[in-house]
Amino acid sequence: MSQHDATTTPQAPEADLENLLHETRAFPPSPEFAAQANATPEMYERAAADRVGFWAEQARELLTWSKDFTETLDFSGAPVARWFADGELNAAYNAVDRHVEEGRGDRVAIHFEGEPGDTRTLTYADLKEQTSRAANALSELGVRTGDRVAIYLPMIPEAVVAMLACARIGAPHSVVFGGFSAEALHSRINDADARVVITADGGYRRGKPSALKPAVDEALEKGTPVKHVLVVERTGQDVPWTEGRDVRWADALAAASPEHTPVAVEAEHPLFILYTSGTTGKPKGILHTTGGYLAQCAFTHRYVFDLKPETDVYWCTADIGWVTGHSYVTYGPLVNGASQVIYEGTPDTPDKDRWWEIVEKYKVSILYTAPTAIRTCMKWGKEYPERHDLSSLRVLGSVGEPINPEAWMWYRETIGAGKTPVVDTWWQTETGAIMISPLPGVTAAKPGSAQTPLPGIAADVLNEAAEPVPNGGGGYLVLTEPWPSMLRGIWGDPQRFQDTYWSRFEGMYFAGDGAKKDEDGDIWLLGRVDDVMNVSGHRLSTTEIESALVSHPIVAEAAVVGAKDDTTGQAVVAFVILRSDAVERADETGEGADVVAELRNHVAKEIGPIAKPRSILVVAELPKTRSGKIMRRLLKDIAEGRQAGDVTTLADSSVMDQISRGMQR
Ligand code: 6R9
């Protein structure tokens, strides 16, 4: 069946997944970029010839080991892998001290931009001093190698310092996103049995100080094993204080020695626990260890972003409360000796050009952000980026969810002046580092596709019967070989680790994402498997319908869910945000109902009548987690006429009230 037919006639289930392949554009690297790129086509060959040996080379080249390893991979205890297990190293030594020892102490590690406009510059030498003092302060509070420390901070340099201070003493950190509730903090502290919490009085958000410390007090009142709370002063606001338990960060650091020897730990020593967000039930504490995690973070950061540490200014907009902040703010960039921007606040404070102002000011050359942010910027309009000189940008990255081709193109055209490579990077909290992505300078990039497993990574797409699908087919994404930065388990719950990831397909890691292979064998991510709908026996991807909606000129953002339907099994329900100019027009002319009809027909035209949404609700906002993921589970509750479930992980829980009211109207 040709793709043209697919838009007008009902389709066989497999063919439904074809529709993303309307997209046929490809952007090969320019000869100039390719000539200077870190990545080469030979890397794929080298890794294919000796995958494990390839990782051993990377681990030795990119990291400094206090004791070299003799064995690279031991998977005899599968599904728990051991990488570089008899080697020893320290993560903070690799991220900080060695740069100072090797004469890079004056290089800027962090250009910090506070939301109110205050700035700070930390060199690698500054970071060494700060992390040493903080490590000594933590030891003073009784933290020993192996103890867990909870970190609950805004996006300020102390967040990175706190993580690295823990790493210096081999105390695994558990970062809890600063926007999470006291309840979420409480359960995470207890699950990890943390003895110390590092927090701040507050941080700046949307032009105002926003308090953090009261949530810590509330969490601790519910009962935890925490003995001490270290409090960074950021906003200077009044906060409740418990004498004997609470300690001022500035005082503790001032009293501590600036000398500290990082503790060399075994490669498999736990580096951190990070709880996954947005799922129902008890959060999963994803466990990462030291050597393999660092090796893959450093490798991917260097090759996927083409990092030149002497000249690039790198900026990843993720918060450290999210895995992207761990791997691509704290560990990857610092291990590679990069200079990076950290920005505290929201992209529209004081105005919608704040990000672009920052890019211009620091001459950011590599930008890594999420599709939701890109679509938000699209919605605001190109006049904001156009106010600024963005010519320093040379690589753009995307992470967190499938990026629809329209957003990809806008990113490249409007932010990247139509010439920067765009890397769509697929990975998860569980994978620790990027797994599937184009390599700039090597790959001819396709808008909307993460394309190729990185050198040393083995992925496939399987059907229900666990057979690899042929090119053109769709199914489930699996990782078929262990990789260095893979999770080593779920904290305290080995059975859940086995059940969640290793039971669906024998001997393979099940990622929970749907994917398809195009005619070239490139991988297109289709969203979580639980987001795949079944309408009248036809498989439809939420992503695909969202992409179709967003391709209409009046739509800024869309979320689609499958709602139970007596006739068709499931029905498509869409929630859309219109572009501001379209909203004004609809208000003036009262053509709201026409908009919905037009969009339903548009989807029918783009994908086929089967995909036509049963209902479309125009909304002002969508419910999102703090890491920017749309919480379709909540929209599904609304679409199926239920009270929305747990909203505690939403960035703004009032959004759901607005949407429910809209539904009742
Ligand atoms: C890094 C991160 C993981 C889930 C993952 C997938 C989605 C992430 C993606 C993507 C399509 C990409 N996801 N990157 N989907 N294309 N480039 O986001 O980790 O928060 O654990 O989320 O995010 O569904 O399974 P995490």
TrEMBL record:
Acetylated. Deacetylation by the SIR2-homolog deacetylase activates the enzyme. Catalyzes the conversion of acetate into acetyl-CoA (AcCoA), an essential intermediate at the junction of anabolic and catabolic pathways. AcsA undergoes a two-step reaction. In the first half reaction, AcsA combines acetate with ATP to form acetyl-adenylate (AcAMP) intermediate. In the second half reaction, it can then transfer the acetyl group from AcAMP to the sulfhydryl group of CoA, forming the product AcCoA. Residues 544-629 form the AMP-binding enzyme C-terminal domain. Keywords: Acetylation, ATP-binding, Ligase, Magnesium, Metal-binding, Nucleotide-binding. It catalyses: acetate + ATP + CoA = acetyl-CoA + AMP + diphosphate. Mg(2+) binds at residues 550, 552, 555. It comes from Georgenia daeguensis. The modification N6-acetyllysine is found at residue 629. Residues 102-491 form the AMP-dependent synthetase/ligase domain. ATP binds at residues 400-402, 424-429, 513, 528, 539. CoA binds at residues 205-208, 324, 536. This is Acetyl-coenzyme A synthetase. It comes from the Bacteria. Its EC number is 6.2.1.1. The keyword ATP-binding applies. SUPFAM superfamilies: Acetyl-CoA synthetase-like. It is an enzyme of class 6 (ligase). Belongs to the ATP-dependent AMP-binding enzyme family. Its cofactor is Mg(2+). GO terms for molecular function: ligase activity. PANTHER family: ACETYL-COENZYME A SYNTHETASE, ACETYL-COENZYME A SYNTHETASE 1. Residues 42-95 form the Acetyl-coenzyme A synthetase N-terminal domain.
